[in-house]
From TrEMBL, chain B:
This is Ion-translocating oxidoreductase complex subunit A. Its EC number is 7.-.-.-. It is an enzyme of class 7 (translocase). It comes from the Bacteria. The keyword Transmembrane applies. It is found in: Cell inner membrane; Endomembrane system. The chain crosses the membrane at residues 6-26, 38-59, 71-91, 103-122, 134-154, 166-190. The lineage of its organism: Bacteria, Pseudomonadati, Pseudomonadota, Betaproteobacteria, Rhodocyclales. The gene is rsxA. It comes from Azonexus hydrophilus. The complex is composed of six subunits: RnfA, RnfB, RnfC, RnfD, RnfE and RnfG. The keyword Cytoplasm does not apply. Belongs to the NqrDE/RnfAE family.
Amino acid sequence: MDILLAIAIMALGAVVLGAALGFASIKFKVEGDPLVEKIDAILPQTQCGQCGFPGCKPYAEAIAKGEVDINLCPPGGMEGVQRLADLLGREVKPLEAEEKPKQVARIDENTCIGCTLCIQACPVDAIVGAAKQMHTIIALQCTGCELCLPPCPVECIHMEVIPETLENWKWKYPVVAIQPVAARPSAKEAA
Amino acid sequence: MSNYIFILVGAVLVNNIVLVKMLGLCPFMGVSKKLETAYGMGAATTFVLTTATGASYIIDHFLLMPFGLEYLRTLSFIVTIAAVVQLTEMVIAKTSPTLQQTLGIYLPLITTNCAVLGVPLLNVSNGNNFVESLLFGAGSAVGFSGVLILFAAIRERIEGADVPTHFRGSAIAMVTAGLMALAFMGFAGLDKYQ
Amino acid sequence: MLAKLFKFYGGVKPPSNKTLSNQQPIRPAPLPSCLVVPLHQHIGGTPRPLVQAGDPVLKGQKIGEADGWISAAVHAPTSGTVVEVAMHVRPHVSGLESLCVVIEPDGKDEWIAHGPADRAAMSPADICQFLQEHGIVGLGGAGFPTHGKLKATPGVPMAELIINAAECEPYITCDDLLMRERADDVVRGIAVFRDMLQPTQVIIGVEDNKPEAIAAMQKAVEAQGEAFAVVPVPTLYPAGGAKQLIRVLTGKEVPGAMRSTADMGVQVFNVGTAYAAWRAIGHGEPLISRIVTLTGNVRGAGNVEALIGTPMDELLQLAEPNPDTDGIIMGGPMMGFLVPNEHAPIVKTSNCLIAHSERLFPPKAPEMPCIRCGACARACPHELQPFELYWHARAKDFGKTQQYHIFDCIECGCCSFVCPSRIPLVQYFRFAKSEIWAREKEKKAADEAKQRFEFKQFREEREKAEKAEKLAKAAAAQAAKKAAEAAAAASEAPATEQPAEAALDPAEAAKKAAIAAAMARAKAQREAAQPKNTDELTPEQAREMAEIEARRQQAGIVPEPADAQPATTETKPE
């Protein structure tokens, strides 16, 4: 008798709670995913595809679903991994690929044949030109994604590291790694 | 009246659920990396704990005790807690998807949080009435949230500090938690009558 | 006279070391061996060069045209020949180069024709342009083009015009000597500013460690019958900061975010700027020289009137540096920096060169951990919390540094000066600021790239849609044409074929029509096409072509007639 009573009370409780939850799940339904926008805002928008996705938005969507790691974006650098980790509460991992210095592409105008294949490949329309006309890259718009290098049939495009000028010069981090006295003649740090 | 104050002080400080009773250490360690997530987790746990304690008291007082079914306490409390946590999850998903993403797995894990089961059980074993139950639940939750926020603030400062390599991450966090527990021992005796 | 003076929070009192260099009158500097005049010497747009290698120039001739409103012209400091317009090292802590005009003096020091401005006939806008054309920029250190500051904010009446003669940094005495010797011209320059801004009050703030300068200015003000107030302010570094001086003299506190103090009815100019403005307006002389203090580890410290573009090592020789000098500091000991390349020229904002030696400036002790003593917060004139800024800048948490108002920091160096752990706090703040600016630039570039990417996708979609539409239209036209032809031929064909043709699915007909249309187009193109390279044939090429044609005819290879193609494909099953 007791056991039946116990089962009955538990069943009653379960039914009541189940009904409440069912009602709540309809009332609190969620549409869409604003998280993707936030992730996309952190990614560097080079649309280079080095993460394996065709653009930054698809990568952001995959991260939001939790399918992929956050350390697949070399143009974002460790900086980007850190910010994604902060946003999503995930662990910071070192980058899969190597982090390269900022580069822009440059077309060797003597070799260009005007085939427009690179113009079609550039994801941000940073190449100016037309069929059988000279092509040139707008350096300010180039994101360094390197997608134009493979299509060029005469291999006239190469990457150049952006030089340090007065406009883009930055103060250096004042912290210097401490080294054992035996390795360096003077133990003074940079002031 | 003074009884209520003592219950509150006892739940928040003297018998702090995390640092004295050592319950709920999982979210304490896992969600305290950033202050914003700590606020969110604290708020969620407060809601869950207070509701769960009140509901558990009612179930115990009106369903289990009259029929002599005290042995079903754990089972029925867990079912109640699971339902309340599901509800909380849905509300958070609707109002703040970022918080849901940030809390991640720790949000549904509130169900298995030993504090969230422990507080109702402690409550009914103390023999509190309904109001006292709510106060006890709310006080424990405030204690949990308060300590979580304090710990998150300390951890954020430690992020910028020169911690020796082998201590970085969980190790220094554990050391800090231990020091905080030591500090909270100073509250002992605050809730005794005269 | 002012009712009372106010105090600003913080500040330090470093040893002033001014008696080293303020005992002698200003000496004119002899012509250097060559002059390297950087084009960009001020805040704002880079001037465009107006000369090229080989051009002769006269003293005061414009060699750089101002670019935009916030910019000023650049002039040749002496007569000579332009050697080159090329990249040369500039006096910047990075040691990087910028575009400079290198002039070889011819020794004649010949002035270009110049004369005073006719102020009565000039409107305020004309005077602003005159000052811009004569290269007048702020000589206090930042180098903001002066004409940009000579307008009151609309709706905010100008209450105070403050002339900054505080010169609070140790070692520097150029403004002191300027006021002692040339107070009359300074007062006339101040009068020019007064006429432009129409303030209620004109206050000249001088630190009280310069009694001779104060006396000289008061005498000049009285002699010219002006109502300017010459006010001694207590000697405290950095009383010469614009916001600090405003606070001391008027009690107003300029908020950190406010860039232009004109929004609060105050404007501040350096006393050297006023002098330069008068030389331009009253004599037509552009800014080609300035007074520079030469001090430090030298035997003959003093002030010289140096030409802009003089290489620093040559200029310092005038003060006879001691043999153990191992570097040159440009600026003062608090805010100046060790110049990476001593051949760099002086620019319009170079107010002092200090000869550096280990004896005078002992090497800094190594940096030790922060003990949170709070001495830096007590010293900061902007009431910031340097220890918090240091903590977050070191941890590279730049969001937090901005929360603690890092951009309000004027990098005066008070915090580094008092730190017992010898932490170079200002280096951390400079690092944080430049990182934040770099990141903002990157973010802007990323946003633009995203916009371009999204537009490219939109454009590709649009092109696809347009193509599809065109095809559909052509197909419809062809279908109509085909239907008309079929109707015309139907009257001859057996009656049974008509229903069969009419029963053709319209889609099928459209497809056929599209293919027919495309083939008709191709056929027309082939018939109309001419080889493009036969327009200008040389006789040899024409002969060669004729020979080839003849050989073809002989071999019986006749190019396929255009009509043959469609017939063969039409019989293919579809």
